[in-house]
């Protein structure tokens, strides 16, 4: 106790001299806590910097200041009490809180006390000990988001039976979804840098009232590092450097970020680089997942090479570079200007699931790769904080994003290399406002405009002659626009009961021009003009500090985008998808019911049940082009299909969480997810939903004491028999295991993993662990690549 007293006395002497600057530290470790949120009503909030400090002068005379941080018990103080405490606070660690500060549900900082939707947060502390390689892996550590992969350079989140273009990604408040987000699996989330993410939140269920089209199954909101100001006359210079090695893919990673803050200006720079070799799968498991060959071009001939190590998945190697620059200017307490520049680029990488396809007893493709995936964003945020008749706070956000991707394929010993290149320029303007009309009523409202400009070109190169000619493009030249307004009202009927209701009107316009040079489409353009009205109604009831009941009714929609209306591609051997200009939006109707209970600050149980009905679902089905049900595509007669509004789908499930606070610094946490989804087929029968994952979850036993954190966990995935497989998956024998009847199925699997982090000093952390201790060979449901075998991880982090 004496060392704690001396430490606190030191803090008081050194930090207390700065009037009205609060310092918040961990009660057990005496380490300053970053990103603690202090709020008072809807008008006042601030967060602590890397030194655990925040200027609280604007809270003067506040009677209630709520102080929250993920992983700590919430406390409430008045400004007078902060003064009495010499502006020094100690927070007690606790993972059993029923409330935390969330932003994603409304775009404003709110207590989860008042949010009827289920929202989870993933903290940087969790990411640090897990050493996630990509942002997709970061989402997976929540235990509530399932990740599908078709190649190592990928990761497609699946939430409550939905995936891809039915989920919405938000980065620093900017919509990441574009008009070419497809219904197939996506890998755009890997463009984000896990080292540069300050906080991640996932909203489960419809989010269309706040986010518009595509927010059907949920919203994934990523907040990147925020530039911090100095609270003294000296500059605040803080940063970190990371390096990491992983054995399963020979990972070599480096990261560096630095914050230079003055009283009114702050600058933050971040750069990360990754290099991954081919991924090695486990040695114990089914032989169905082994592909012991790869194709190499030798003497102008494609040759099948037998691998020395059959467990290597070739080709899966790739590299990536991410950069971020932020500038923040706060001339006074009213205005806050933030500019952010983001850039991400991958190397080309193989689409491993396609490399497993065979034809006539040998490899079907000599090449099937994604070209470099590039994402760039310029984002300007303008915040204004002063009450008037219209709002208490205003946030205007202007953003421009650039997306570039390409696909390269060539058949085995075929001369023609097909290349399609896509570019999307996305512009967006958001204006969001918050107004407290009384002590118990708060209104959130806003306007949004989004414009996507889509360009797509195709080329065919004869590799024997080197001659390149124009080829068919994947998409038509298109513009996609969204114009919207929304409002949400939050009313605290009592201190224990909060009612929330919202509505949004969205107008979507799509204009496409088709090139009929290569395909004789019976149309040359598609023009869609669709309106959509969505709403939500929910409530939160807290009969006591240890009980929470919540329910939420919501609708959501997804308007047809350019990928739905206009793409041309081969979905499977002998099948080709063609445009359909007659699509209309699909709508989802959802109900959630949740309950959470804390027993004696020792046990926490959290259960949420949900049901979603999807109407006018857009699905790929058989089609005719100019009266023909088959056409020649890339030299092969292929059945014609198109995306069509012709289905109804129903999804229901349960999310269950249990946390135990054990003695001596131990804790236990487990998550189980059960979901089931069915959709109508063309013949009136039903099929399982393609993106409804089998039973899955995570269980963790952790230990935290002083400078040491350790965790032993098990990640598990249930089985899907052939009868439970989606109808569209049953032809993909190359990526699934085969049962005794030769039918595909997805086996159950689990991995045992150990992670640890130790603070060698105030500036140096060492972390690492062993993943897949028993070296299992497994493949997550719907994935075209197996997970890593036994994987040794070692990482060093330097803080300065």
CATH class descriptor of the largest domain = Mainly Beta
Overall pLDDT level: 92
Helix content: under 10%
Please identify which CATH superfamily of the largest domain we are dealing with: TonB-dependent receptor, beta-barrel domain
Number of helices: 7
Report the C-alpha radius of gyration, rounded: 27 Å
The largest β sheet comes out as: 22 strands, antiparallel, barrel
Overall description:
6% of the residues lie in helices and 56% in strands. It has 2 domains: 94 residues, Immunoglobulin-like (Sandwich); 576 residues, TonB-dependent receptor, beta-barrel domain (Maltoporin, Chain A), CATH 2.40.170. It is globular, with a radius of gyration of 27 Å. The two termini are 28 Å apart. It has a 22-stranded antiparallel beta barrel. The protein has a 5-stranded mixed beta sheet with strand order 10-16-17-14-15. Strands 3-2-5-6 form a 4-stranded antiparallel beta sheet. The N terminus is likely disordered.
């Amino acid at each position: 106790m004496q060392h704690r007293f001396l430490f606190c006395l030191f803090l008081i002497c050194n930090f207390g001299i700065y009037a009205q600057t609060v310092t918040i530290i961990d009660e057990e470790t005496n380490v300053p806590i970053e990103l603690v949120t202090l709020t008072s009503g809807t008008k006042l909030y601030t967060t602590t910097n890397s030194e655990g400090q925040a200027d609280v002068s604007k809270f003067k005379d506040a009677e209630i200041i709520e102080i929250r941080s993920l992983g700590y018990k919430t406390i409430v103080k008045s400004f007078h009490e902060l003064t009495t405490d010499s502006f020094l606070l100690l927070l007690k660690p606790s993972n059993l809180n029923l409330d935390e500060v969330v932003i994603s549900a409304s775009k404003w900082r709110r207590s989860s006390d008042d949010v009827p939707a289920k929202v989870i947060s993933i903290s940087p502390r969790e990411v640090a000990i897990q050493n996630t390689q990509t942002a997709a892996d970061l989402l997976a550590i929540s235990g509530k988001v399932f990740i599908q992969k078709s190649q190592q350079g990928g990761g497609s989140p699946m939430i409550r039976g939905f995936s891809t273009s039915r989920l919405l990604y938000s980065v620093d408040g900017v919509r990441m979804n574009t008009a070419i987000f497809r219904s197939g699996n996506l890998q755009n989330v890997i463009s984000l840098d896990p080292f540069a993410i300050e906080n991640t939140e996932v909203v489960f269920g419809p989010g269309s009232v706040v986010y518009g089209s595509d927010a059907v199954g949920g919203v994934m909101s990523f907040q990147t590092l925020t530039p911090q100001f100095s609270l003294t006359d000296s500059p605040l210079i803080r940063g970190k450097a990371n390096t990491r090695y992983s054995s399963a893919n020979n990972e070599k990673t480096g990261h560096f970020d630095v914050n230079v803050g003055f009283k009114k200006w702050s600058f933050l720079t971040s750069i990360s680089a990754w290099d991954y070799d081919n991924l090695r799968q486990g040695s114990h498991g089914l032989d169905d997942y082994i592909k012991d060959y790869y194709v190499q071009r030798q003497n102008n001939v494609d040759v099948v090479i037998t691998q020395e190590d059959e467990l290597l998945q070739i080709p899966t190697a790739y590299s990536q570079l991410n950069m971020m620059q932020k500038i923040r200017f706060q001339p006074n307490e009213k205005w806050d200007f933030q500019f952010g520049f983001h850039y991400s680029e991958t190397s080309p990488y193989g689409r491993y699931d396609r490399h497993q396809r065979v034809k006539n007893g040998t490899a079907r493709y000599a090449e099937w790769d994604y070209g470099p995936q590039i994402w760039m964003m310029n984002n300007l945020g303008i915040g204004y904080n002063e009450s008037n008749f219209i709002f208490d706070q205003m946030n205007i956000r202007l953003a421009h994003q650039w997306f570039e991707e390409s696909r390269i394929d060539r058949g085995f010993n075929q001369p023609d290399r097909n290349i399609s290149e896509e570019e999307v320029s996305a512009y967006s303007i958001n204006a969001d406002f918050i107004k407290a009309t009384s002590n118990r009523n708060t209104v959130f409202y806003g306007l949004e405009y989004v414009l996507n400009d889509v360009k797509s070109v195709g080329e065919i190169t004869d590799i024997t002659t080197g001659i390149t000619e124009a080829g068919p493009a994947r998409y038509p030249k298109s513009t996609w626009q969204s114009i919207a307004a929304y409002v949400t009202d939050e009313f605290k009927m009592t201190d224990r009961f909060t009612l929330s209701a919202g509505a949004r009107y969205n107008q979507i316009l799509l204009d496409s021009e088709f090139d009929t040079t290569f395909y004789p489409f019976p149309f040359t353009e598609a023009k869609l003009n669709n309106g959509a009205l969505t709403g939500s109604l929910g409530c939160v009831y807290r009969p006591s500090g240890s009980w929470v009941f919540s329910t939420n009714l919501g609708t959501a929609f997804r308007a047809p985008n350019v990928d739905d209306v206009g793409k041309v591609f081969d979905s499977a051997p002998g099948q080709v998808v063609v445009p359909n200009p007659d699509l209309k939006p699909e709508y989802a109707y959802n109900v959630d019911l949740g309950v959470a209970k804390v027993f004696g600050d020792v046990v926490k149980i959290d259960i949420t049940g949900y049901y979603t009905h999807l109407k006018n679902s857009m699905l790929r089905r058989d089609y005719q082009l100019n009266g023909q049900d088959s056409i020649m595509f890339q030299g092969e007669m292929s059945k014609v299909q198109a995306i069509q509004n012709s289905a109804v789908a129903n999804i229901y499930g349960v999310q269950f969480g249990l946390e135990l606070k054990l003695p001596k610094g131990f804790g236990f946490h487990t998550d189980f997810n059960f979901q089931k989804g069915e959709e109508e087929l063309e013949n009136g029968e039903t099929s399982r939903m393609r993106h409804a994952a089998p039973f899955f979850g995570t269980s963790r036993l952790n230990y935290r004491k002083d400078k040491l954190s350790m965790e032993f966990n098990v990640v598990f995935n249930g089985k899907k028999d052939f009868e439970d497989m989606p109808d569209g998956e049953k032809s993909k024998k190359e990526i699934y295991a085969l049962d005794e009847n030769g039918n595909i199925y997805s086996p159950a699997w689990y991995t045992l993993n150990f992670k640890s982090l130790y603070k060698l000093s105030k500036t140096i952390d060492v972390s690492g662990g062993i993943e897949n201790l028993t070296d299992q060979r497994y493949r997550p449901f719907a994935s075209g690549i197996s997970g890593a075998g036994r994987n040794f991880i070692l990482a060093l982090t330097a803080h300065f």
